[in-house]
Structure to design on (307 residues):
C-alpha cells in the first residue's frame, strides 16, 4: 500500500475545505459502530481533461445505501455531483479515486444512530492499480477464504456500508498472510460470491458468467459495465452461481471493481487457471480502458468531464 499523498481540498459538509482541516472527533459515532456508507469512483485522464466514470450510477448507489440504513442525507444527487466535479477541479489531478462518505457524526453515542448528526464528505486521492500493476498485467493469485461473505439477513451486501468491510478485511488479511494477493469469498450457501472489494467473473468454453445479485454481492458498476461489453462483443453471458471447483476448472477468471479495474486471476488455491492466456479478459480490459478514457463510441454518456 502506498501512503496517501495530500492534495489541496476535501469536500466536507457542503464546502471545500483544506486537506488538513477535514477532521473529526474521536467520539464520532461511525468510528465506534461502523455506521457509514461510501462510494468509490474513478476519474480518468482523457484528451479532454479529467472525466468521472459513471458518476450518477455511483451516486444513486450511494443514496440507496443511505436509504437502507435510514440515513438522511442533506444533499441531493445533483449537489453531490457538483461536489465531485468541484473537488476534481480544485485538486487539479488528471486522474484520481473519489470517495464519497456519509457517516454518523459527533454528538450522541449508543446504538441508535438516528440520534447522531449525519456528516457527508467527498475526498479524493491518487490511487494506482488496486492489485498492483503486475497483477493487472499478469494476473493475481487468489485464496478462497475461510470467512463467509455477509448476506442480506446479516448486513445487506448491496448497501456499501463500512461495516461490511470488516468482513472483507478478515478475508483480505487471511489471503495476504497465506502469501496470496487477494481473497475470494463464498456465500452462506457455499457458492462463489465476490472478492473483498471486487466482483468476480469466470469464462468457460466462451461462456462468461458472474454470480447473480441474489448470491449476496455488491452490484458492481464495473460488473454492469462488463456485462454491457459482453453484449457489445457478442459473447455469451449468464448470471449464475458457481462453485469453488468450477473456478479451478475455468479457462479464465477475473475480478472487476472501480479500484481493481479488470484484473485477471491466474491462480486459485494453488491451481493455475486455464493456459495462462486470458484472451477474453484482455479484450474486456482494452474496451474498459477505451470507455474510461473517452475513446469508445456510443459510451460518451458514461463520462462527466470536470474541466
Ligand atoms: N464488491 C465489493 C465488496 C466492493 O467493495 C466493490 C468495490 C465491488 C464489488 C465492485 O464494485 P464497483 O466498484 O461498483 O465495480 N470496491 C470499492 C472499494 C475498494 C476499497 O478497498 O476501498 C472500489 O473498488 O472502489
Amino acid at each position: 500500500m502506498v501512503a496517501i499523498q495530500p492534495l489541496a481540498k476535501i469536500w466536507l459538509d457542503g464546502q471545500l475545505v483544506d486537506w488538513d482541516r477535514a477532521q473529526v472527533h474521536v467520539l464520532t459515532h461511525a468510528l465506534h459502530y461502523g455506521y457509514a456508507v461510501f462510494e468509490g469512483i474513478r476519474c480518468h485522464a482523457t484528451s479532454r481533461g479529467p472525466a468521472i466514470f459513471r458518476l450518477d450510477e455511483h451516486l444513486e448507489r450511494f443514496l440507496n445505501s443511505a436509504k437502507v440504513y435510514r440515513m438522511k442525507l442533506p444533499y441531493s444527487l445533483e449537489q453531490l455531483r457538483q461536489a465531485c466535479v468541484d473537488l476534481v477541479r480544485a485538486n487539479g489531478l488528471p486522474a484520481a479515486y473519489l470517495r464519497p462518505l456519509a457517516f454518523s457524526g459527533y454528538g450522541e453515542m449508543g446504538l441508535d444512530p438516528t440520534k447522531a448528526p449525519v456528516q457527508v464528505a467527498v475526498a479524493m486521492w491518487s490511487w494506482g492499480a488496486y492489485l498492483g500493476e503486475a497483477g493487472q498485467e499478469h494476473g493475481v493469485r487468489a485464496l478462497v477464504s475461510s470467512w463467509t461473505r455477509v448476506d442480506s439477513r446479516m448486513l445487506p451486501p448491496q448497501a456499501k456500508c463500512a461495516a461490511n468491510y470488516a468482513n472483507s478485511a478478515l478475508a483480505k488479511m487471511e489471503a495476504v498472510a497465506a502469501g496470496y494477493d487477494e481473497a475470494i469469498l463464498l456465500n452462506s450457501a457455499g457458492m462463489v460470491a465476490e472478492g473483498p472489494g471486487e466482483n468476480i467473473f469466470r469464462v468457460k468454453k466462451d461462456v462468461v458468467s458472474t454470480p447473480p445479485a441474489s448470491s449476496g454481492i455488491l452490484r458492481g458498476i464495473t460488473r454492469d459495465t462488463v456485462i454491457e461489453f459482453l453484449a457489445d462483443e457478442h459473447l455469451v453471458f449468464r448470471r449464475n452461481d458457481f462453485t469453488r471447483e468450477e473456478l479451478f476448472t475455468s479457462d479464465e477468471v477475473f475480478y472487476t471493481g472501480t479500484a481493481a479495474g479488470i484484473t485477471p486471476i491466474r491462480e486459485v488455491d494453488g491451481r493455475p487457471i486455464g493456459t495462462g492466456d486470458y484472451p477474453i479478459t484482455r479484450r474486456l480490459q482494452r474496451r474498459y480502458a477505451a470507455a474510461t478514457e473517452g475513446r469508445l463510441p456510443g459510451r460518451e454518456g458514461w463520462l462527466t468531464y470536470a474541466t
Q: What stands out?
A: The domain at 9-125 is CATH 3.30.470.10 (D-amino Acid Aminotransferase; Chain A, domain 1). The chain has two domains: 9-125, 133-292.
